[in-house]
Specification:
alpha/beta, Trans_hexapeptide_repeat, about 10% helix, Rossmann fold, 2 domains, 22 strands, Hexapep, UDP N-Acetylglucosamine Acyltransferase, domain 1, PglD_N, binds GDP-perosamine, Shikimate dehydrogenase
């Protein structure tokens, strides 16, 4: 065990259970999970107090606990950011999560509350913004600037000096070439390769191999 503050997990689904696995493996104590849905089918939460309403968070003083944002982020799903902003404004701190087998260059900058999952790689000179998820196996190369509230999904590759605005979603296995800029709330679909800058609120889809024959 350690002397860090106990944690309250917001959400009890897939993302929350991945974070709980990392945190418990690091000896952290999760004292409550807050989820409107049943969590009994997720053994990772066995023995953790379950509350169905976010009102239960008020029972815990912001001075005594830290929150974990266990709500994932898929395109056009505002809940993760909304809860983060609501509870930050109330004075709660969100824990920063860095998996023990992630690689973070000593010359990278990780904002408090960011989440770097198993085998995530953050290379030298890169910056990761608040409440952003760098998911399993994702690679953020040198000097990238990843803003707040992004989700870089599993195994995505961001070559050097990519910049993103807030709320960007980059799907699993997508590749972003170097020096590309992706504006606020844009989406790069899973498996796509992005070779040009992407405007705000737009989506870049993968080119299907059949398209070159039509
Ligand atoms: O208002 C809410 C609320 N609404 C839904 N407050 C709180 N505290 N929790 C809420 N939830 C909970 O979010 C649900 O009860 C459920 O426990 C959780 C959503 O779980 P789900 O497994 O559907 O999605 P996820 O957000 O954990 O994961 C998505 O995003 C990840 C990044 C998934 O699509 C994953 O595949 C993905 N890796």
């Amino acid at each position: 065990m350690n002397n860090k503050k106990p944690l309250i997990m917001i959400g009890g689904g897939g993302h929350a259970s991945v974070l709980a696995d990392i945190l418990m493996g690091q000896g952290r104590e999760i004292i409550a999970v807050i989820s409107p849905d049943d969590v009994s089918e997720r053994p990772i939460f066995d023995g953790v107090a379950h509350f169905q309403s976010d009102d239960a968070i008020d029972k815990f003083s912001a001075a005594d606990v830290k929150l974990v944002n266990g709500i994932g982020f898929l395109p056009r799903s505002p809940l993760r950011q909304k809860l983060y902003q609501r509870y930050s404004a109330l004075g709660y701190e969100f824990e920063t999560i860095i998996a023990s087998d992630a690689y973070i260059s000593p010359y990278a900058s990780i904002a408090p509350s960011a989440q770097i999952l198993t085998r995530g790689v953050i290379q030298t000179g890169a910056t990761i913004g608040e409440n952003t998820i760098i998911n399993t196996g994702a690679l953020v190369e040198h000097d990238c600037y990843i803003s707040a509230h992004n989700h870089i999904a599993p195994n995505a590759v961001l070559c050097g000096q990519v910049t993103t605005g807030e709320g960007v979603f980059i799907g699993a296995n997508a590749t972003i070439l170097q020096n590309i800029s992706i504006k606020n709330d844009a989406i790069v679909a899973a498996g796509a390769t992005l070779t040009m800058c992407l405007d705000k609120n737009t989506t870049h889809y993968p080119i299907r191999s059949t398209e070159k024959y039509t």
